[in-house]
Amino acid sequence: MFERTLVVAAASFAWLVCAAAQEGPKLGVPATPEQIAGWDVSIGPDGAGLPPGSGNAAAGKTVYEAKCVACHGVDGKGQPNDQLVGGQGTLKDAAPVRTLGSYWPYATTVFDYVRRAMPYVAPHSLTPDETYALTAYLLALNGVIAQDAVMDATTLPKVVMPNRDNFDSAYREPKRR
Amino acid sequence: MTKATGLDSLEQVAGNGLLHRRLFLQGGAAALAGATLLTARAAPPDVPAWMKTPGAPMRGYGERSPHESQVQRVVNTTPGTTGTGGSRTPLESLEGIITPSSLHFERHHSGVPDIDPAQHQVLIHGLVERPLIFSMDALARYPLVSRIQFLECSGNSGGNNNAEPPQQTAGGIHGLVSCSDWAGVPLAVLLDEAGVKPEGKWLLAEGGDAASMSRSVPMAKAMDDAILALYQNGEKLRPEQGYPVRLFLPGYEGNMNVKWLRRIKVTAEPTMTKDETSKYSDLQPNGRAKLFTFPMEVKSVITSPSGMQTMRGPGLYQISGVAWSGFGRIRRVEISADGGKTFAQAALDGPVLPLALTRFRMPWRWDGNPSVLMSRAVDETGAVQPTRAALIGARGTAYRYHYNAIQSWSVAQAGAVSNVYV
């Protein structure tokens, strides 16, 4: 009898300890769909959440030469900051050239990154059309898409980057304890 | 038990003057006292000026001695920017295992934002039952946990990939690692409140800086030991460490520990952001690249003596440094003074904490001849810090991140210490 009580007590205690570690005061305020829409700018490889709008390389060149060339050089050749164009075929070299065209696995990453972080001095200032156009310009400069290809929410996720299949995930899910 | 009466009677444990670590734990006091007598004799007999007048008053927030103002981070700024780049902890000027918050390394991708905590909020959404917004006042009401843990940028020590060894200080080469007492809210508590759907296997963490720095984090890590850190070394986070809230993922590469955290989106797959594909991915000699190499591997560095320092003549010295591993505790650190021919075990200052810097020490009698010092750490999983040749042989030099090879310091006859590849 005593033994059984002890077991029950121990079991309840374990539950309490576990609950205490997991319990918070629950002060989160429900987020409305409108609030989430204003924050949720990230775009994954499936392109979900890409905004309406479109652009091509010609329009992108205009934006690039006004807002990007100072840091990334003429035609994305780099200097003072990252080179964006070229480098294909160098990844096995001693000094590989990692650019958007030679290295990046997903085209959606270009849109995602430019929209939230570029231009460096004025992030969040480009319109969706400008962002699609810049993405098209950089992809076309790298020979990934045709000069006249239009990038939008439908076409961008379908672009296959040249180096896409040369990545391996090193992450392994831990075994359940 | 016979007391040591001079340096000659101390037990040599490895080549070129390495002495038993017990010298600094017991019994060696007599020998040490003998070594310091020389300098004690020069003390002035008069009363110094600071003893003849009352000292400075109290102050609301302390500062270090002005005589220590030369101890600074090593700052490297990306061309054409002001706040982008990194600053490195001057490891060679520090002792113990806690990095002062003012000297914690920095790595920013678009400067340090000036965030008003009254306006800052954290959104949790995506594959959850209840999307939620947390104010800073709300987060402050949650149960906190605090732990002493290191943080290391995965690009740390990358200069040693160069063909020629960079001639810099220990901090200049390895100073993208620091260790603090971090306190915060377990992320699992907040995720449970939002209710993660079964298909939610990853999350995207986004910062509130001008880069909206973003990284994907596995749900298993988020639910295990991740915290939303609010405090560092007892006080609220410094702006350059993510004020008012940062993600802290013990043992994982620094870039994932998103500062100025603003948004967590639960996803089924990684978002494949710029900073987990084009950067912080590991290119191998065969042209394939590894994604998501998260934990920082076992590593150590001797901070005294170390690069750019000069030893002042032969005699007894203490070799000292720090070791750490993203896989758990440091099990042991071995020291060589003869370029790796022989090693002996260093003393570890306790308690040895998991995922924290661990201070090691070893007595060394330098005979004044050219020497090469090395430290080799082993963690509790049995992982051994590799030689540079082994690491580069396996990965090449374009790998760029996660460099954890043994650091060798050359001591020249005149005492100058420099970085050397062995």
Number of helices of chain A: 6
End-to-end CA span of chain B: 41 Å
CATH superfamily of the domain at 53-165 in chain A: Cytochrome c-like domain
Low-confidence stretches of chain B: 1-6, 27-37
What does this structure look like?
The complex is a heterodimer of chains A (177) and B (422). Chain A is mainly alpha-helical and 177 residues long. Chain A has a domain at 53-165: Cytochrome c-like domain (Cytochrome Bc1 Complex, Chain D, domain 2), CATH 1.10.760. Chain A contains six helices and four strands; from the N terminus they run αβαβααααββ. Chain A has helices spanning 2-22, 33-39, 57-67, 69-72, 108-117, 128-141; strands at 29-30, 54-55, 151-152, 167-169. Chain A has a two-stranded antiparallel sheet. In chain A, helix 3 (57-67) crosses helix 6 and helix 5 crosses helix 6 (128-141). The longest helix of chain A has 21 residues, at 2-22. The model of chain A is unreliable at 1-20 (pLDDT under 50). By secondary structure, chain B is mainly beta. Among the domains of chain B are: 121-287, Oxidoreductase, molybdopterin-binding domain (Sulfite Oxidase, Chain A, domain 2, Alpha-Beta Complex), CATH 3.90.420; 299-420, Immunoglobulin-like. Chain B contains seven helices and 26 strands. In chain B, the strands form seven sheets. Chain B has a five-stranded mixed sheet. In chain B, strands 8, 9, 12, 13 and 14 form a five-stranded antiparallel sheet that branches. In chain B, strands 21-20-24-25-26 form a five-stranded antiparallel sheet, with no helix packed on it. In chain B, a hairpin with a 7-residue loop joins strand 20 and strand 21 (344-345). The two termini of chain B are 41 Å apart. In chain B, 49% of the residues are buried. Residues 1-6 and 27-37 of chain B have low confidence and may be disordered. Strand 1 (29-30) of chain A pairs antiparallel with strand 7 of chain B, so a sheet runs across the interface.
